[in-house]
Amino acid sequence: MAAIQSLLVALVVVNLAYLAVTRLKTLTRITALQGVLLAATPLAIAGPHGHGLVLSLAVLAIKGIGFPWLVARTLSRLEVNPVVEPYFGFNMSLLAGVGGLLFSLWLESRLPFPPGLFPPLLFPAALTSIFSGLTLVVARRKALTQVIGYLAAENGIFLLGVPLAAQGSVWLELSVLLDVFVAVFVMGIALHHINKTFESIDVGRFCSLRD
Amino acid sequence: MLAALPLIPLLAGLMALALPADGPRRWLLAAVGCLHLTLVGTTWVHPPAPAYGGLLELDPLGQLFLTLASLLFTAAAFYAVGYLRHEGAVHEKRDFQDGATFVNAPERVFSLCLCLFLSAMTVVCATRNLSVLWVGIEATTLSSAPLIYFHRHRRSLEATWKYLVICSVGIALALLGNILVSVAFYDPVAPAASMDLAELLPLAPGAAKPWLRAAFIFLLVGYGSKMGLAPMHNWLPDAHSQSPSLVSALLSGALLNCAFLGILRAVQILSPAGLGAFCGELLVLFGLISMVTAAVFIVGLGDYKRMLAYSSVEHMGILALGVGIGGGAAFGAMLHAVNHSLTKGALFLISGNILAVYHTRSCHDARGVSRALPITAALWTAGFLAICGSPPFGLFVSELAILRAMFAGGHGLAATIYVIALAVIFVGMATSVCRMVQGPLPPAVRHPGPERVLSVASPLALLAAALTLGLYVPQGLADVLARAAAAVSLGG
Amino acid sequence: MNAWLHILAALVLAPLVPGIVNRVKARMSGRVGKPLLQTYFDLAKLTRKGLVESHTASFMLGVGPAVSLAAICGALCLLPGPASPAPASFAGDFMLAAYCLGLSRLAIILAALDTGSSFEGMGASREAAFSALAEPVLFLALLALAADAPSLSLSGMLGQGLSGALAPERLFVPLLLFILLLTENCRIPVDDPNTHLELTMIHEVMVLDHSGPDMAMISYGAALKLWFFAAAVTLSLLPVQAMPPLAAWAAFLAGVVLVAVAVGLVESSMARLRLLRVPRLLGSAGALAALSLVLTVWR
């Protein structure tokens, strides 16, 4: 029990770090860190056997290594300004993140959870991850941060699904992972084209399609 | 049988990727469409057995949408033979809007993605498992994004990026909805083995209601953003206006239905749990918002492909509204889905013909279509009348059915908004369409000569089907529609 | 008597801490460095010297250092020792300690403004701005400590160790106190104590006009403040309350020395942050403090 709690606290810190980080490279590392922590959660919840082990290895391969590698590769090929450009300040986002955490803790105390399903703090950790991810999608200028935001949100959703994963088939979990992997891959290709065509990956330049 | 359905387009896509010759590859698409459509047609006669250990299973609802997807794909594939002959060559083209040069994506990749798209839609329609459904819908996003970016210029790239990001995030929220569904059904003593409707439906009355409510909201918002329900519709006009017309036809006629199917599966779970009224209210709300949004934007819109896209937002609103009202309106909504797919697919293909000759998407510049392209102009007018719900066409019947059910159910206010929005959209579209069809040919446009069969055959066939459905609904189809409507009835 | 022993140790040993920091920095950069006792020598030299005062300055220039030193001594009196509670302790005394530190800073700032020099005004404004950002972090960290302490005084809050199972959020408080140590004592990621360019200075530029015994008081006060924070970091980590007195004292002193070494390592391995980025550092620390408070309360 202590192990899972430590993991979850670390995940919450990582979620807040998403909002405070100013370098794209650090953001990539944080994605990797979150992936590794996520890979440890099935083991911490269900113990190292069978289903959980397969899932954990797959998550480590895809979320802990695959995604960060894809993002880092895209980043190094793009040769863009390595700074995260926010629409509003880092401290504001961080404040919003802490607000989101407070809200999700409050929500956790209010919701009628099925007894014994979620370890304490798992729900807030997942929710803040989704929140951080969505903040990265809407409040940062670079298209790459949108991809990372999508990943962070997806990681949060995945975390929420971990305690339930023991029920379903592992193949379905894996195909979900694969789907998201392909999504990030396709987004990476689109990013290359954006960088080539617009000479920037600033989504603020997307203004030609209006009504 | 069912096992082969998604595999056929998959293999064909790989073949298309490997085929060096352009001509056979184009006809391969048409052949895949025909084969797929034939196989889907046989399911109407012999209901297929579940495949892959129950992961794929066809029920009336899925059968209906699968047939639509297959039909639209076949129509688009035949259209593509002519279209790719024209557009397939990889050389620099001049962008008619901002003058920059661009190339088209390699035709092989385009064909591959088209086939993958069909494969993914087949999986979406032919499953009753929520997880498989999710995987399929995400796959449709990924396989269709390269299709939107066929013309490699700035605007299509912008549209593709919006599509990718908005739909991916939306679908991620739908995954959260899926997880909440399994929280609602969580039982530590006898855990449910899968997210299959066959397993979930018997347990639904005992599921935790607050979680089901939350799950429905996330599924509605998630799949709704893919379906183009306002206010999550932002990507839709961009993607539909920037993609090649045959892709727009597939997106509007087949893909939006697939996303709608995701919402319908959620309705199927919530109704037996006693939350039908809750679903209904939300669906009516989003439906009306979509219709009003489309009505507001469609008036005075200068871009005819965007106009069609907003019309799709409107019709998706009508579908949500119909299912949300329930009763006779659900049957109307199912019929409406069929009619809308046929008509809107035809309209987008026709708009491609106009675009190919006029090189503009502006209603003000593309004038005198009846002089340049007489058959296209006739189809464009007929399609416009059909999409606005004018009498001889099928949409009239389905829209009237929904309206009748609304009055019967005492939804006076919703009915008023519905009628007003329909009227505004009719007027808004009529202005643009009439201006385009009439008038003198602009001096810059050369007379294109006689129209090619391949470019008008598909839309003609689709519109003819829509017209037929307005006059007469075959008994077999009516049965399936009724069973599909019963599956998504809100009463339980 | 036992309670005062710790205060006595602080008063005597505090100038050793900057000596250790300087020695570590020197060794890290391959130099021999100043003697460990250099601060003592400096203090002795400064007290023997005369006082030079600006003509434009008022009495505040002279009062500032004295008030500052007195306020820091006041804060020290609220800090528990390794083997005994503080000489003065009552519920909520951590507020008084925080405000004593604030008062000492205010006195220095006022004295700096009093000189009328633009450099000192600039330094004062930066010091005020950063300490305004550091103060909420300090309070959040102390509240997080207080949340699961037996009593609401510093003596009850410190010296508990990391209670129970290794709860990760308990590790944040020492970390936060360490960041505050660096900020409040003008250490490297925030301010460079050895810089030679007035424009980039924060703390050092404020005390340029002080000399002789006044300067000695300021240096001594700075050493005491460093001791205060080093002791706080050590006491928030070590469960000294449960140890026998002698072992507690040994562990405590070793802890303070280790903190000083850590400061030296940080100083020699990091570059100073741009002024604009300091608020971001403190903002992150604030978020961490809020997180640790929230998690502690919520558990």
TrEMBL record, chain A:
Question: What are the annotated GO cellular component locations?
Answer: plasma membrane
Q: Its membrane topology, per UniProt?
A: Multi-pass membrane protein
Query: Which lineage is the organism of this entry classified under, starting from the top rank?
Result: Bacteria, Pseudomonadati, Thermodesulfobacteriota, Desulfovibrionia, Desulfovibrionales
Name it: Hydrogenase-4 component E
Organism listed in the record: Solidesulfovibrio magneticus (strain ATCC 700980 / DSM 13731 / RS-1) (Desulfovibrio magneticus)
InterPro entries, A to Z: HyfE-like
Mind telling me which residue stretches traverse the membrane in this protein? 53-75, 87-106, 118-138, 147-165, 171-191
Q: What subcellular locations does the record give?
A: Cell membrane
Q: Which UniProt keywords apply?
A: Cell membrane, Membrane, Transmembrane, Transmembrane helix
